[in-house]
Amino acid sequence: MQDHIVVLTGAGMSAESGLSTFRDNGGLWEQYSVYDVATPEAFERNRELVLRFYNERRRQLEHAQPNRGHQLLAQLEKDYRVTVITQNVDDLHERGGSSNVLHLHGELTKARSLDHPELIYDIGYADINPGDTCDRGSQLRPHVVWFGEEVPMLDAAAELVRTADHLLIVGTSLQVYPAASLAHEVDMTVPITVIDPDAPGSLVRARVIRKGAGEGLAEWMEKTPRGGAI
Fold first, then answer.
1. Where does NAD(+) bind (predicted)?
2. In principle, which of 64, 96, 144, 175 could form an S-S bond with 106, CB 3.0–4.6 Å?
3. Which candidate in 103, 105, 143, 166 is catalytic?
4. Annotated binding residue at 147?
């Protein structure tokens, strides 16, 4: 049976494709404060601004391309069972070739009903505007987890992490909770590798590669035997 590699990815993975991150801009994203564009209160206060912000992100994503890191993770599927758990809301893992991706914080290319959250729609890179409604007449909103909201996929992600034969953490400094708590769900016998230029030393038993996603994954794969136990 193939070993199961569970990969937890963060903003650093998308940054190498040119997508801006809050972490790199001191709490700003394209000059917007997180509190103005990424909270339920912001949506109540200024729906037009929030929708415009995510429309801009969607247009930016449409022109972004998967980078070397995305492609290397997809290549791992030739030799291992691979599950990607991403904190990112873009679709670059899927476009890069990964076939098993869980989005912790939602997906930018989907919309959902404000009043009926079970109604979720694939919208690709199209805009969402004030007055765009679901089949039951409720305003559509981005299908993303805003700051202050629960992370509905967290339990499912934790279950996946517990099945890992190796936990690979890429492009995240493990500063954002509750997602960062997933690193503590693995059995003590399971090896952990962290690939990030700003990787902390808090996971004392982890192997740390302080490089960007693409360069760090290439180094890790070069030293990892193909097809056998990791």
1. 10-29, 87-90, 171-173, 213
2. 144
3. 105
4. no
97 is in an annotated binding site: no
Give pLDDT tens digits along the chain (230 positions): 689 999 999 999 999 999 876 555 555 566 778 889 999 999 999 999 999 999 999 999 999 999 999 999 999 999 999 999 999 999 999 999 999 999 999 999 999 999 999 999 999 999 999 999 999 999 999 999 999 999 999 999 999 999 999 999 999 877 666 667 898 899 889 999 999 998 876 666 789 999 999 999 999 999 876 654 55
> Is 173 marked as a binding-site residue?
yes
Name which CATH class applies to 1-19+66-105+151-230. Answer: alpha beta
Predicted model pTM: 0.92
- Tell me, yes or no, if 105 is annotated catalytic: yes
CATH code of domain 20-63+111-144? 3.30.1600.10
